[in-house]
Predict the structure.
Amino acid sequence: MNKVRLRYAPSPTGMLHIGGARTALFNFLYAKSLKGDFIVRIDDTDTERNVTGGESSQLSLLRWLGIKIDETVDTNSSYGPYRQSEKIDLYRKYISELIDSGKAYKCFHTNDEIDAERQLQKKEGKWNFMHQCSHKDLSKSEIKSLEDKMEFSVRIKTKNEGNVSWDDMIRGKITVNCDEIGDWVALRTNGIPTYNFTSVIDDYLMKITHVMRGEEHIANTPKQILLQEDLGFSIPVYSHLTLIVGEDKKKLSKRNESIVQFISQYKDLGYLPEAIINYLSLLGWSPKGHEEVFTIDELIELFNKEGFSKSSAIFDPKKMEWYNNQYINKLSDEDYFTFIEKYAPRELVKKYDLNLRKRIYNLFKPQIRSGIEIKDLTKIFIDFNKYENYTQDFNTVREVLINEIEKSSSFDKETISGIFNILKKEHKIAPKLIFMPTRLMVTGMEHGPDLKESMEILGMKEVIRRLKMYDK
Ligand code: GLU
């Protein structure tokens, strides 16, 4: 059997999005689960829509996520080039051959003429515009004379009868009537071939065995299969992934501002690639009967076509955070320190030595959901805002607490425990008048990390300074 080869083929019209990353991941996992190759091809023929940095964002972030690319623009392989813009002449050669064999033709209609035809068909109630081209059967001399004075596009002839069908690996058999397809443009008037055309040529030349892509491409597949038949190419196995939607069940789009959608943003926010991979793998696939926390290598082992879902996947930012928290907690203390220090406020790094910083970060490890959260969480170690609702009740504990601390020669967790015991036993203060009021007075906040550990880290001087700030 031929080696399995799958490709992810982004157009560099934007940065790597959750949807693209999921498509890349599924192609990668399926290829690797069958010991095949994973290729990234850059579909960049629509030059006007390409954005600077689009290609490098795709490649560098896929690699950051841990998706290993066997072949792409910067690897050596006989299947290259992997940028379609570098192969325009090759595509044109195929187009000429199709014209010569009568399977494609030059269409000299102008955009205005085609627009007028579109309007007319709309008026007649036709929902699916199809250009009825009278240039399909022009004689050689007619073509010659038009060619000298006019621009043209090249269209692929599509038969009007019969149907085209494929066995979609995710959705089962899909059948489309040929009379719904129409003659489609393979070469634009500017001499640049279209996506549907270049994709067929490259999938064939790159020996792609499986094409797995988003459901928005379902309408392209019949065109591509008919062209493969015209050219005598083998037909890959197609599968169309279901949509990723928001809570509102609408496709994720830039308009949905409540959801972070670009991988670079997750990276900046302090998400671990392993967590992103884990969560993305469950958007439209599930490991049926297995637990749902796994590494990319475990995923390769588990991945199979039976796990694909037929309904849309709802993106839940909370679940993504949950995964990130899980993976942060799997980090060794050393790796956690390196990871989290990148997000820590500079004042904190200046103010505390390495050992204390490690202790501060560790205080928050169990709860942290993304790297940048460390900024807010560690605030109590940098600035201090007095607790606003200080009441006279606090005075009892505050005065004795200051006294006891000042008497003490050391200030570690044990001593602090001892001091609290003295407050309880000797001064007969009820625990509820000790712990919460102390936390509120020392940190200014109701919730926070372990109190004694935090007091030790702050140090005796700072704790006394804070307690004394409530003097009237
Ligand atoms: N360049 C296309 C896209 O970004 C690729 C679709 C395909 O996989 O064939 O949607």
